[in-house]
Write a structure and sequence with these properties.
globular, single chain, Delta(24)-sterol reductase, 11 helices, oxidoreductase, Delta24(24-1) sterol reductase activity
Length: 224
């Protein structure tokens, strides 16, 4: 039994990487809780940018119990200059795109930001009323493409590069996860998301003068 959640164990993605580098296979039995939280200790692979030596055996044995650091604490102690520097040299994005567009999406991510590894998580997107649904009349297989890390392209610029990704995602009828930095205009945002039911309900419940709409809450373009 491999209890990968133990503080002194290697980060899970590095553990998997070792199998790939050795070009070998193996069978492991992992406790359910450890498997569910397999990316928690390393914040997926983000911690290697925050603590580059964090996966070193000595660090894991002595200080592994201290990670992952509280993201809220990191933000609290982060100055404005550091925040802007981090924003300009770091990407955290999740884009949900149709599975049929996956190859094109990976090529686009590679040319625009070149962040690896990529998180790929397939799922069925049902055709339900609301802001997010397939273009057709039936459910469709989508995949969440997540990019977390430092871009390796020389031409990376946070706003311009993110807008390139957003444009591609709109063109293939995909969706951007709303937690991430969003630089779309209001028109582009509602081109990506179906706002018909949302605006109807806001009108019926008289929310327009009481509460900001979702675009103003999640898009950087609304606050710049």
């Amino acid at each position: 039994v491999n209890r990968i959640g133990t503080y002194y164990k290697p980060w899970f993605f590095k553990h998997v990487e070792n199998y790939l580098k050795a070009n070998t296979t193996g069978t492991e039995y992992i406790p359910a809780r450890d498997y569910y939280h397999r990316h928690t200790r390393s914040i997926f692979w983000e911690l290697q940018d925050i603590i580059p030596f964090g996966n070193h055996p000595i660090f894991r044995c002595l200080f592994g119990w201290m990670v992952p650091p509280k993201i809220s604490l990191l933000k609290l102690t982060q100055g404005e200059a550091m925040r802007k520097l981090y924003e300009q040299h770091h990407v955290i994005q999740d884009m949900m795109i149709p599975m049929k567009s996956l190859e094109q999406c990976i090529q686009t991510f590679h040319s625009v930001i070149k962040v690896y590894p990529l998180w790929l998580c397939p799922f069925i997107l049902p055709h339900n009323p609301g802001m997010v649904h397939p273009k057709g009349d039936e459910e469709e297989l989508y995949v969440d493409v997540g990019a977390y890390g430092m871009p390796q392209t020389k031409h990376f610029e946070a706003m311009a590069s993110t807008r390139q990704l957003e444009k591609f995602v709109r063109n293939v009828h995909g969706f951007q996860m709303s937690y991430a930095d969003c630089y779309m205009t209001r028109e582009e945002f509602w081109e990506m998301f179906d706002g018909s039911l949302y605006h109807k309900r806001r009108q019926e419940l008289q929310c327009n003068k009481a509460f900001p709409e979702v675009y103003d809450k999640v898009c950087k373009a609304a606050r710049l």
